[in-house]
């Protein structure tokens, strides 16, 4: 299939593109490059791409694709809360517009990167895809709105699918330090402390970036009548852990590190345990990566590639990286890129 992957130069996209290529797909990217040079280790081989802001894509640019995988977004809660209107602009309006243009251009399949955080404060029970959605942040709310709007576009020729990913972990050449396991392993390697800023009790479902890539690859070719306008939780029940349990796995993986639960951020209302049976039963999808395996992988990568304090806190953390781009005049207040390509900031 000829597949357009938006956000291909992000954390998940950089892992997903080779997985799709190995499955035989012809992949083209679309990304405005906020994190293009935020690389740890050898530089990834990016595919050919369309260099445009998502908000400016045209129907002509979408003609000829069999599928669109839509990852590009302001992609976590802190970023989403920076400027909620901007979050809705990029994450909701531009995403819905992309889906409509894709359908009108004859693209048959649209895979959307949603999130398990649409469930919000869900308590201790396992939530299925049919649970009420209680988004707690503009980021999560934007994901709900896209699912609602794009589901309405489904017809015999257009198959949208919503993949509600658990919180990702694992090594990507375009690393992110602002997701829980990657963050805790980084602190352990850099300081010897595994610092938990909440009280450690919230539940978090986790999934490896490569498992997410495999789920998208599976959904590209799954029967349209099964998956159309359907939501799938992506992860595994084995990785529904409390933050304190995740931290414990990090202490085990990074020898000499110690657990510090500061509680300084107070209670965290975002807590949910997720049921992943639908993807197992309908798609045959099983997420393989465990938390201990992911913590060990990250420890090895951080050590081998020489992770530094400043890169960890800045280039690999989304909010400060975007603030650096703004301060350097490389993006404007609406996060539009000022030049054809964002140069590396020293
Ligand atoms: N990482 C996670 O834990 C996780 C969990 C659930 C869902 N998701 C979703 O998966 C998707 C990818 O996440 P990620 O972790 O790779 O995020 P990321 O921030 O690493 O990458 C997003 C990419 O989108 C690009 N982008 C953003 N706005 C754009 C615009 N206006 N025009 C063109 N490109 C733009 C950025 O340059 C970046 O490369 C997102 O939609 C995110 O919400 C991520």
Automatic annotation (TrEMBL):
<dbReference type="InterPro" id="IPR050177">
    <property type="entry name" value="Lipid_A_modif_metabolic_enz"/>
</dbReference>
<feature type="domain" description="NAD-dependent epimerase/dehydratase">
    <location>
        <begin position="3"/>
        <end position="235"/>
    </location>
</feature>
<dbReference type="Pfam" id="PF01370">
    <property type="entry name" value="Epimerase"/>
</dbReference>
<protein>
    <submittedName>
        <fullName>SDR family oxidoreductase</fullName>
    </submittedName>
</protein>
<dbReference type="InterPro" id="IPR036291">
    <property type="entry name" value="NAD(P)-bd_dom_sf"/>
</dbReference>
<dbReference type="InterPro" id="IPR001509">
    <property type="entry name" value="Epimerase_deHydtase"/>
</dbReference>
């Amino acid at each position: 299939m000829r597949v357009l992957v938006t956000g291909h130069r992000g954390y998940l996209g950089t892992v997903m593109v080779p997985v799709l290529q190995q499955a035989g797909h012809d992949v083209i990217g679309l990304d405005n490059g906020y994190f293009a040079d935020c690389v740890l280790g050898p530089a990834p081989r990016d595919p050919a791409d369309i260099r445009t802001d998502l908000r400016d894509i045209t129907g002509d640019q979408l003609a000829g694709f069999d599928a669109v995988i839509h990852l590009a977004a302001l992609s976590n809660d802190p970023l989403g809360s920076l400027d909620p209107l901007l979050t809705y602009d990029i994450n909701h309006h531009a995403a819905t517009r992309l889906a409509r243009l894709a359908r009108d251009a004859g693209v048959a399949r649209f895979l959307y990167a949603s999130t398990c955080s649409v469930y919000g404060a869900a308590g201790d029970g396992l939530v299925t895809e049919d649970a009420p959605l209680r988004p707690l942040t503009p980021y999560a709310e934007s994901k709900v709105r896209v699912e609602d709007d794009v589901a309405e576009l489904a017809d015999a020729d257009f198959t949208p699918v919503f993949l509600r990913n658990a919180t990702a972990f694992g090594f990507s050449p375009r690393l992110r330090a602002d997701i829980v396991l990657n963050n805790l392993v980084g602190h352990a390697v850099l300081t010897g402390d595994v610092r938990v800023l909440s009280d450690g009790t919230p539940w978090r479902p986790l999934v490896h970036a490569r498992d997410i890539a495999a789920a998208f690859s599976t959904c590209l070719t799954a029967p349209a009548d099964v998956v159309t306008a359907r939501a799938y939780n992506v992860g595994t029940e084995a990785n529904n852990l409390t933050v304190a349990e995740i931290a414990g796995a990090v202490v085990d993986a990074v020898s000499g590190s110690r657990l510090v639960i500061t509680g300084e951020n107070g209670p965290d209302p975002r807590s949910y345990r997720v049921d992943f049976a639908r993807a197992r039963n309908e798609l045959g999808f099983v997420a393989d990566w465990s938390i201990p395996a992911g913590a060990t992988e990250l420890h090895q990568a951080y050590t081998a590639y020489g992770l530094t304090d400043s890169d960890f806190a800045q280039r690999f953390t989304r909010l400060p990286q975007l603030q650096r781009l703004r301060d350097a005049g490389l993006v404007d207040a609406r996060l539009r890129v000022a030049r054809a390509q964002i140069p590396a900031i020293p």
